């Protein structure tokens, strides 16, 4: 029988007749390529350095552990385990196919069987997967059955607290581990670092046709000065034939966030294959595990590039022929960058445990099921899969080559950086996500598959623009209050300044931010503006949130039930138990509550008008770049509330967006 052990012995015999290292590397490369075909798994995983007792988790199969050890031992015995040899072997392997459209769901990794045809027939039971034919669907049923028949994929599913007729821990108290976070509504659980943002990324150019982008040749200068989570949508909104000079300042004082942003930008610019770069960056951004081949191709590109040679401290380093990157980082950020490139720092077993300890901790089941309770059945199954495996992929995508842990999402001590309420969906507009998924052949039910295609499209487009536009990107990791003092003269005038929510009084406050950044606003260009988000203002301010005020909660609960009478049935109103439908009603109160009166009082209390006037600015009465609150149109009155005319509109806003709808957005412009 032609076993792996026999094939390896044959390779040993072949080596006896080889004289040079190049000959041995060539023979080993051919051997690994044949193993690729024999197993259906990427041979490059032999270079991963993963421990031999790794569990059966996505991208790492127990049956390969001994083979990994044997290959690594073989390479060491023949002095082939150095970086140059590994690089040479990786370069000889083909790039793993990237995902362009949703393919047929039938695949059997262990058997090496993959159907590459396009999926067009949806599973009627869940609509989470698609097949090219009835034959493939029948062959895949044994594997798919456990997902399709998942108890959560049932309209009658109820959270455990409701089944057990008890108070949920988010009402009763429960274990308190971390301070309050806006999304969860109460205490949070996990590492506490926000890596993905907690609301959709802001497009600094506003709606199409904005005066800022009316001219394709106008030079523009943008600053993301507060909390900066990489977002390509601002650059991607420019006309495709834009030919001006685009200067971008990115700043975040968190070394982990900044290091991830730096790597994301760098890989999008320096990797030859933009499609591969986009998928790798997507997983570096959002997935707990990374595809080995993409990761090592990224490492090779970085290893030979000037940005690494200058230690991420260079000025005007070319990312592409037309775009440059300048960085001014602290030692802490440099150390984070190095750690985030150290793939063997966290083994897959540790990463898998870290993910499940936070995302599926038994002590947090009520919080988790509160989130599931508002979802459609298929979305519950899709989100549960993401929380189990931590991979941003279409539901049916093969994941066997995701066999190294993402060091940028796991602490050096083997813990997850994020909280259990973190979700990749929060940084994106749900309707846009769904449209992108449909354009690539997936269904709305496969919500994470839709997000995969949407994010990838944005990254590919951004990578193209890095190569076409004249961009100069400058990155800092300083406090927004002191950064302007460090800026060179060439970076002291901006057309748009986005300060995230550092105007919240829990951070710098309105007066400090305007005094610091107001003088840097371009006074000679119409439409120049500072854009600020207020996220935490409502946490303790009177009448800022309907749900936090008993009288308001009663009034707006009745109002909501008049608008959506099917949300509760008569039995719910008489029940002493908090039902999933009760939670849904409470979750939606802020959507119909006009908090503008409370917000204006808050601004007066914080001295906003006086602070703006001191630096020659004013608040816009009607925003022209961003909506005054999420869910309404740009240019809406401050009193506007998001429309919920259809159940689908309500569902997307309340249950998928992650917003609590007390957030406000303000534009500050030059006082004339």
Helix coverage percent? 40-55%
Structural class: alpha/beta
In order across it, which strands form the biggest sheet?
Answer: 10-11-13-8-7-14-15-17-16
Would you identify the regions where 5 or more consecutive residues have pLDDT less than 50? Answer: 40-63, 174-186
First-to-last CA distance: 85 Å
**Rg computed from alpha carbons, rounded to a whole number of angstroms:** 26 Å
* Number of strand elements: 17
| Helical stretch tally | 27
Shape: globular
Protein name: MYND-type domain-containing protein
GO molecular function: DNA-binding transcription factor activity, RNA polymerase II-specific; zinc ion binding
Domain MYND-type: 112-148
Keywords: Metal-binding, Zinc, Zinc-finger
Describe the structure.
Residues 112-148 form the MYND-type domain. With 672 residues, this protein is of the alpha/beta class. Among the domains are: 4-92, no CATH class; 107-148, no CATH class; 493-672, no CATH class. The chain is 40% helix and 10% strand. The protein contains 27 helices and 17 strands. The protein has a 9-stranded mixed beta sheet with strand order 10-11-13-8-7-14-15-17-16, sandwiched between helices. Strands 1-2 form a two-stranded antiparallel sheet. Strand 1 (107-108) and strand 2 (113-114) form a beta hairpin. Helix 1 runs antiparallel to helix 2 (21-39), helix 2 (21-39) packs across helix 4 and helix 20 (510-517) packs parallel to helix 26. It is globular, with a radius of gyration of 26 Å. Residues 40-63 and 174-186 have low confidence and may be disordered.
